[in-house]
Amino acid sequence: xxxxxxxxxxxxxxxxxxxxxxxxxxxxxxxxxxxxxxxxxxxxxxxxxxxxxxxxxxxxxxxxxxxxxxxxxxxxxxxxxxxxxxxxxxxxxxxxxxxxxxxxxxxxxxxxxxxxxxxxxxxxxxxxxxxxxxxxxxxxxxxxxxxxxxxxxxxxxxxxxxxxxxxxxxxxxxxxxxxxxxxxxxxxxxxxxxxxxxxxxxxxxxxxxxxxxxxxxxxxxxxxxxxxxxxxxxxxxxxxxxxxxxxxxxxxxxxxxxxxxxxxxxxxxxxxxxxxxxxxxxxxxxxxxxxxxxxxxxxxxxxxxxxxxxxxxxxxxxxxxxxxxxxxxxxxxxxxxxxxxxxxxxxxxxxxxxxxxxxxxxxxxxxxxxxxxxxxxxxxxxxxxxxxxxxxxxxxxxxxxxxxxxxxxxxxxxxxxxxxxxxxxxxxxxxxxxxxxxxxxxxxxxxxxxxxxxxxxxxxxxxxxxxxxxxxxxxxxxxxxxxxxxxxxxxxxxxxxxxxxxxxxxxxxxxxxxxxxxxxxxxxxxxxxxxxxxxxxxxxxxxxxxxxxxxxxxxxxxxxxxxxxxxxxxxxxxxxxxxxxxxxxxxxxxxxxxxxxxxxxxxxxxxxxxxxxxxxxxxxxxxxxxxxxxxxxxxxxxxxxxxxxxxxxxxxxxxxxxxxxxxxxxxxxxxxxxxxxxxxxxxxxxxxxxxxx
Amino acid sequence: xxxxxxxxxxxxxxxxxxxxxxxxxxxxxxxxxxxxxxxxxxxxxxxxxxxxxxxxxxxxxxxxxxxxxxxxxxxxxxxxxxxxxxxxxxxxxxxxxxxxxxxxxxxxxxxxxxxxxxxxxxxxxxxxxxxxxxxxxxxxxxxxxxxxxxxxxxxxxxxxxxxxxxxxxxxxxxxxxxxxxxxxxxxxxxxxxxxxxxxxxxxxxxxxxxxxxxxxxxxxxxxxxxxxxxxxxxxxxxxxxxxxxxxxxxxxxxxxxxxxxxxxxxxxxxxxxxxxxxxxxxxxxxxxxxxxxxxxxxxxxxxxxxxxxxxxxxxxxxxxxxxxxxxxxxxxxxxxxxxxxxxxxxxxxxxxxxxxxxxxxxxxxxxxxxxxxxxxxxxxxxxxxxxxxxxxxxxxxxxxxxxxxxxxxxxxxxxxxxxxxxxxxxxxxxxxxxxxxxxxxxxxxxxxxxxxxxxxxxxxxxxxxxxxxxxxxxxxxxxxxxxxxxxxxxxxxxxxxxxxxxxxxxxxxxxxxxxxxxxxxxxxxxxxxxxxxxxxxxxxxxxxxxxxxxxxxxxxxxxxxxxxxxxxxxxxxxxxxxxxxxxxxxxxxxxxxxxxxxxxxxxxxxxxxxxxxxxxxxxxxxxxxxxxxxxxxxxxxxxxxxxxxxxxxxxxxxxxxxxxxxxxxxxxxxxxxxxxxxxxxxxxxxxxxxxxx
Lengths: 693, 693
Prior knowledge:
The structure is a homodimer. Helix content of chain A is 39%, strand content 21%.
């Protein structure tokens, strides 16, 4: 459907100009200069020729074949032009013009107009307020930006035009090829999700990269991106991760909200690799486009100098990679081939006196070694052999194996030729050896994601639909969770002191007393919880203290909840939080009163299958502890996993729940179960926090 | 003392060669080509002329003045040459030759020889196994590496020759100037500490940078580096931070050990900024050399595009910087000058249509604004004005204010001229806007370090020296700590069940019972601790359980320690650990059985003054919690600070203590004190862990 944007039969440029300082000139120049083979039809009433091309008075006059219009006229005229395009049978347009929703109220009206005209005349369009598109294979360049990257395998779409311009410039300087580059602009029609789909369908694109500030529809985005990621790597850079950044995004594009955590969890789920910086995004993209994925985390480092190898090793270790052991055969072989003082353990140091021949021998041996999943080749500057010759050698030897090789031919002034050769040979090079670590980590991460069996989440049905609806409507969180199979410790409400004693004796010591009051959220903040009560006397004392604390804090005391106290368990937090973009997220981590302090809570998009629930648990320190820590026996992980799956289904089943949090959830030892002790929740558009114990 | 290495009166090159493929040729070439103004005296028996310079048969023949020898002869001949130098009155040498300790036993012997000959003849030397030195201001280039950086303000010394070669190459390509560059080689004579001192004394060097794998003497290094850092910024990149990296360092240089943590703490204390990567080191160095320090963390971002600004803002926020608020006046002024749709809040977006004139006006306004401590200027690629003109404008406007400005003129192909101008104007530029964050963070960190008043640590004298020595010798950790003013809860040993009951009743409930046994380290691992015992019956039950557990674990039970149980306090860990390089380090953090899991322990080099102790506490989550968290009252921070200072003195006083650890140390609420509950310790060269409660 988006094909005519990238492989048009003919292109009309409405608003073409003879003035070299106008964008309408740059567009015609780029179409021509970068060898677009179809018809180029400048449209401009007051000119007869632009850059030796015949100029047309109106769209209607443009001859066949033509299926793409590039519109660069003042904002108030754009709708009219789109209508003319529709009438002429041009069903695809790129609206470069600015002055729409990004520039205030007036522009917003013009944009609404544009949308309805385009719908009426069935014109698909990219923009407005964008800088165009490039397909290096067609080739076609609809931008006004000087320069065009070489043909390549990386597709890039961006919600920032500036980022497109800088990527074009960077790609030219660095000699990195691209397949397609797309500036999405205000994306009132064609959006990032459709563009990712288009890049997915494009055979020339081997890796999809995207600069994303927000998505149009979280769930749809995840579906499309995951489908794409199953076939080819998708790397995204998210703008607006911090608080100030998010505010800036809102004022930049007015993009729909969605928390940075939710984006992280959504990317994770869909198999999108989230880069931290632009540099990282394109380091990764080159490696993913050019090299096979490593089978595992074992890296061999081949170097002619110790220092740079050490920096690479430090960075690799920090990124969770490990140094391959190397077999005895490999070491023996290297010993017989390398200089006497060389290091034949990993990192393998051929020493400064070794040239491309020695590198070739050593690289071949390392790539053959079964303990090696990938190889990093470092060359510190030297001036007794041509760096380009090493580039040729690495390219050739790597090409005859099926393991990834990343190069770091260091330096700047002396190595340009070598970098060109490496890029031609499809060996990614980074100027500083530390950068190899994040590249290999991204590759391993993709490999692991691809290896996850795609189980459908289990569908639980062992609950009463009516009860569920009623409990949710009444914010009776406990009943709701019990219905979904989550257990609570025995407990009972008591209205006065005497009743409390009776109830405590019947439940059995030790017990916990908790203040019951409509108006209190964090009970510990008014000292409304008394733990580990072991006798009648202690019950009385605790009641008095709670009463006193409630009076002090000036809150109504309706009574206390008497609860069986659980001992020897591990306190975790488990909950749901609804993201405006990606829907319900399940969160899990170390619980208790220090939750915010410990910052050990991770989240994942609902629903969760078993593996996803396990991964969520394992990503937290709480999860590590649950496997048995010091003298503590392993906790009942199985129950926790089941709860997470059930809770994730609850989040999907009930769209009116905004937040639901069990803290603590008491996890007893293996086989003994887990018990929710405290639950808080809110319904969507429900400002007031409702407490229940 | 090291002056002749950088400002020699005349240079003899022993081992000079006419063969362009030999290092001995490259050295003579570099001396000549890079305009060394003193006499250059090649020494080679079999040549009469090298590169049009007269060649001498031996060192003895070289005419005056000459005070530096560059030695590039086979390793076995080096000692003889050094002797000849000494005899000739040349007291400084750079030994380029390899084949010494780095290459095995034979080389080690040669190195020992070299050291004793040099001592005998009083010759100071850099190397062996190095690639020489550069002083761009003299100028003199004693390396054989092709190319020479421009004159500049950055001094660099390195324990890796490869790093020197790559920095030379990078500097040439990036147009960054250096003052001095030094390859230290095996540094058996001149070492990294002396070199940092020499760079400190050099007026041309405004910033010291160093690649360090190990230091020769930790305490001396700290002293010299701190003195240097008080005058000029010192930035270090530490090689061998991870486990594998540290192993590689050991095999690379055989450098003395010292943990990565200790290096971090030593750098922190001495005011050395620790960079994470080479790129970061030189990003920081340029900014620190060229720009004033910011007064604080408030950054204004000035941009012509939203996306790149958002990425910069994300990175700034992550680095702990914040966006300046901007005064109402500034906003009003910008509103009157910038295009209508521009953003006049921070980040200030002048929009793609604005050129260098608009940037000038906005930059001047931002630098004038009192809420702004520093400004980041971003330019996304455009092609309607010369990027170089923006570079001129930024340079000029920044020059008339005293706040730091960091630029990110993005792109590669189109901006070379602009970068040259920025570098000439001393405005650091980074190709990707995210990199500004780490630069500004480093500058703020330096500012904060410079602002710390240099208090001398308090010297405590309220203890009995004899008792201290005796306790330490007997590993009576408790007595030792009590002597140093650290409190323990009331406790008493009991040998059998009956005695335990009596003791418990006399101490008063609740109490804790702890297994006493010579052979147990982590008591909780044999279930040897029973907490919160409140009655006679519970004492009996606890005794039985401990007995049972001891039998199960097959350890001798000598009795139990009955201890007053402390309630309502916060469990922290506090300890000493002796580093082989930097001596005693004090550690502090969240305590309890989950210490390793929580990873909330920070360390600092002893001794600590009050501010350093406070900073150590504040760097941990435990410290944040101590200030009062949720319903918990503030803990007795004052006592903890005092303990840390006292403990740090203990570490300095007693050089035979290897490790000493209180976990948990129970910190009660403000004014209530803190009590050590469990102490473990080891003496230096004492393999066995001794436990005491």
